[in-house]
Amino acid sequence: MGLLHNGEWEPDATRDQYVHDTFDEHVENSGDAEFPAEAGRYHLYISRACPWAHRTALARRLLGLEDVISVDVVDPVRHEQGWEFSPEKANCTPDSVRGHDTLYEVYQEAATDYTGRVTVPILYDRETDTIVHEESAAISLMLATEFGDYASKSRDLYSESLREEIDEAIEDIHTSINSGVYRAGFADSQAAYEEAVQELFDAMSRWDEILSTRRYVVGDQLTLADVFLFPTLYRFDAVYHTHFKCNVRRLIDFDHLWAYARDIYQTDGVPKTCNMNHVKEHYYRSHDDINPTGFVPVGPELNWETPHERGELSNEPTAINEANT
After folding, report:
1. Distance from C-alpha of 66 to C-alpha of 61, rounded to nearest angstrom
2. d(CA 235, CA 67)
3. DSSP SS3 for 303
């Protein structure tokens, strides 16, 4: 995978070799803040392939922050140099802020002695030429809570009255589904793989039942909980079902989860954050240990535009941990 060690790129290094540094500052909606929320100041580096980066792209679009926060898109394939900029490839961009060829160079400039992984997404501050944060949940939360004065859409992704429920749902989804597919895909033993798959499909069945009576994960409105669930569902049949061997059932075999995923996809702005070609190219060509041939599957053929008929759901409050009991 490769990482930076004391500011030097080591293409064969693994995440367990060093104690990692982090960028964990926060943008605040205050003129006195070190990183105040301002239009045109912040920039996102993302991959259309990465589910974690997809969260931030969704939050940016759903809130209407396209003219407030700029974005660059890296090459979907990650090899010896890590994430690279390949503007000649379809739907990729150059590094429009610093003009670099690789993402690790952005990290090097932000902290010359940085040790750690080079990841997407990154929230970058143009004014101080540094990385504010590199963790998708924190970045998405900042977009949802600190940029309200600049958002062109009146959507509240982290409603104050629902925050406890949103946080609970996000934790459940992250542990069992978002991370579950990775625990299965990168398991180091048959037992660990089977345990991860069991937990994953138990959770998917539970959420399929929950979403049979409510349109969204929490309440009657789209929230960050939906922003965090959708990217995994979008990739499930094309990647996780085959590449990560999560093949007990497909997404399309879950009546309510599949309809829910189509509902989110058909929300204004969401399709612009999705690129299935980038998704498949990344997973099947970046993970040499899982797919040494580098062949990218042609299918599956999924119609994300099929009507979902979820607009009339009553949004009855089904407790997350009570479904399937």
Report:
1. 6
2. 28
3. coil
Other Cβ atoms within 10 Å of 56 Cβ, number: 30
**202 sits in which H/E element:** helix 190-210
Active site (catalytic) residues: 50, 182
- Residue 55 in this model has a pLDDT that exceeds 90: yes
Region 160-274: CATH code = 1.20.1050.10
In angstroms, the CA 119 to CA 109 distance is: 15
Domains of the chain, by residue range, sit at 3-146, 160-274
Cα 142 from Cα 202, distance rounded (Å): 31
The answer to whether 318 and 215 have CB atoms below 8 angstroms apart is: no
Which superfamily does 3-146 belong to? Glutaredoxin (3.40.30.10)
Task: Give the integer Cα–Cα distance in Å for 203 and 209.
Answer: 10
pLDDT in tens, 228-282: 999 999 999 999 999 999 999 999 999 999 999 999 999 999 999 999 999 999 9
Do 304 and 259 touch, CB atoms closer than 8 A? no
Distances (CA, A) of 113 to 5, 9, 86, 102, 117: 7, 11, 26, 17, 13
